[in-house]
Structures are given as structure tokens and as C-alpha cells.
Amino acid sequence: MLNELVVFSCLGTVAHFGQAAPVGDRLQEMTVAIQPSFSKGLVHLSNLFDLVMNYDETVGSGSMDNDATILIQTAIRSASNSLNDTEAITVHHMKLYEATLLSLATDISAKEAQLRTDNTELEQLTIEVNKWQGEAAKLGQEIAELDNKVRDADQRAAHSQSRVQRRRKNRWKWIAATVITGGLATPGLVLNERDIQKLKRDRDAWQAQANERRQLLQVAENNLREISTRQQATEESIQKTRAILVSSQAILEQLRAQYAILGGLGAQIRNVSTFLFSLNGEMGVIHGQQQLMVLFSPLLESVNSLVTFLEDNANMVVLIGDREAVSKIRQHLSQNVMPALGN
Q1: Which residues, other chains included, contact 53 with Cβ-Cβ below 8 Å and sequence gap of 6+?
Q2: What's the rounded mean pLDDT across residues 199-226?
Q3: Domain span at residue 308?
């Protein structure tokens, strides 16, 4: 059984808009889909190069195998069919890749718009919080001042009332004083009573004002709690959206990089398929031609580019080909075929 060329892809799981999604799903799905036909194509190419090398050696030794060109044509068609299938699958999955990129980019744009909206709302909520904090502080200060006035009025009224009570207990002294002074002492008692009544009126007015401001303070505190709750929720939403954006933008960059590499792989396969198609037509008129490998020079260069591409981007492809076939192709390219082209 042939060994598979196994190279690894980044398959870590990351958060995508609040949901866990494997970054490599699309890549893995595509590479698994193209692996069978692509692996067969590499095997057919390896066999093709073996046949071509044997053909040139046979012609060079003066002998001729009439079936050799038929075998070569069969190998060309087999490789061409396999790589054509691979190219078709690649094109299909590249379209799916494009849809994924478009969807993710659209989601990112929506999140960026949401972030701008949330930031604007947060600025407005911050202004409202500061406003109601100031209003609550102002009302609290006014209530404290009015409460002080109420306590002061109560104390002064109590003091005046105490004085009135003392004077009433010593009424006989006031009567004697009235006789002696001609009634001058009586107005003092009346004045104290009037002061007490005024203090009570002032006290009641201040108390009413304090109660009114307490109601306003309760409204301000309720508004402050509501807006503060919204402010906190908006801040949490902004933090969450920012984290999602950072993660999603990283995923987008990974997908774009993978898309570029897979697009390059598709282009390499297409180049090889193009040369195989042209060779299939030319093989019908090359009977007896020496150094057949010269005719295969464009194909060899394309295959060399394809193999180099796979080796350079091994960490982006999963189960992409056949290790034995790739090793044999690389051996042909590095040791046998490419030097022969320079002769």
C-alpha cells in the first residue's frame, strides 16, 4: 500500500461571533475532497516519467518498443483525467471558500457597525450618568441644608416654649411686674408666642421643601440606577464585541492566507493539466522520436513548480498526495530529468 503524504493544517478551534468553530473546517473539507484524485494524478505522473525515461533509454540503445508510446499516452490520459477531476473539485471548493470569506467579512462589518453604535450610546449614557449624579448630589445637599434648618427651628421653638413655660409658672411675678411697670411685661410673653408660631411655620415650610426634594432625589436615584445598569451592559457588550472582532479578524486573515495558497495550488494543477492536454495530442506524431523527455520539458517544469509549491506550503495542506509518488517525482526532477534537459 502506498504511503500518503501527510502534512498538517492549523485545525485549532476559536470563537467565531460567540460560537466555537474550527478554523480549518473549510480547508480540511477541500483537501480531503481532492486527495483521492490528486494522489492518483501524482502516481500517474510518476509512472509517466518512468515510462518516458525508459522510452528514451530504449531509443538510445537502438531498440524500439511499439507499445511504449501507447503506454505513455495511457499514462498521460490517466494523469490528465485525475488532475482535471482535482481541478474541478478545487474550483468548487474555492467558490465555497469565497462564500465563507464574504460571510465572515460581512459579519465583521456588522460587528464594527454595532461597536460604533454601542460606543455612541455609551458616550450618551455616560453624559446621563454624570447629569443624574450631579442632580442627586445637589438634591442631597439641599435636603441636608433644609434638615438642618428644620432641626434648628425645632431647637429654637423648644427653647422659646421653655421660656414661655417658665414665665407662666412664675405668673404672680409677672402680675406684680405689670402693676409696677404699667403692663410692660405682658408684651414679652406675647412676643415669645409669636416667635414660636413663626418658627413652626418656617419649620413646616422647610420640612415640606425637604420632603419634596426627597421625592425628586428618589426619582434621580432611580434614573441613575437604570442608566448605570444600561451603561454597564453597554460596556460589557463593547468588550465582548471587541474580543469577537479581534478573533474574527484573525480568522479572516487566516482564511485569506489559506485561500491564496489554495488558489495557488489550483493554478499549479491547472498548468500541469494544460501541458498534459497538449502532450496527449502531440504523442500521436512522435513515434520514433529520440529524447522524448525534451518534449516533456514544459510539463516537467510545471510539475517541479507544483511539487515545490507543496513542499513550501506543507503546513497548509492535509492528506494532499502520495508520499512515494512525490518522492519519485522529486528524484526524477532533481537527479535524472532536469540535468538531462540541459544536455
Answers
A1: 293, 332, 336, 337
A2: 91
A3: 4-118+246-341
Beta bridge partners of 16: 19
Could you tell me the pTM of the whole model?
0.65
Would you state the pLDDT for residue 141? 95
In our burial notation (b when 16+ CB lie closer than 10 A, e otherwise), range 193-229 reads eebbeebeebbeebbebbeebbebbeebbebbeebee
Residue 270 has pLDDT above 70, yes or no: yes
Tell me the C-alpha to C-alpha distance, in Å, between residue 54 and each of 9, 46, 284.
38, 12, 18
The grid coordinates listed for 104 are: 465572515
Same domain, 33 and 179: no
Amino acid at 171: R
pLDDT tens digits, 160-169: 767 666 655 6
Q: Which residues contact 5 (CB under 8 A, 6 or more apart)?
A: 39, 310, 319, 320, 321, 322, 323, 326
Residue 216: the pLDDT is 94
For residue 321, the surrounding DSSP H or E stretch is strand 321-322
Asked if 271 and 236 sit in the same domain, the reply is no
Helix (H, G, I), strand (E, B) or coil at 322: strand
The Cα–Cα gap between 306 and 321 comes to 12
Question: Does residue 94 share a domain with residue 13?
Answer: yes
First to last CA, the chain: 36
CA–CA distances in Å: residue 240 to residues 17, 116, 208: 9, 13, 48
Predicted confidence (pLDDT) per residue in 226-254, tens digit: 999 999 999 999 999 999 999 999 999 98
* Residues 158 and 84 both lie in one domain: no
Spatial separation of the C-alpha atoms in residues 120 and 113, rounded to whole Å: 11
CA 32 to chain centroid, in Å, comes to 27
From the list 289, 306, 249, the residue with the least C-alpha distance to 56 is 289
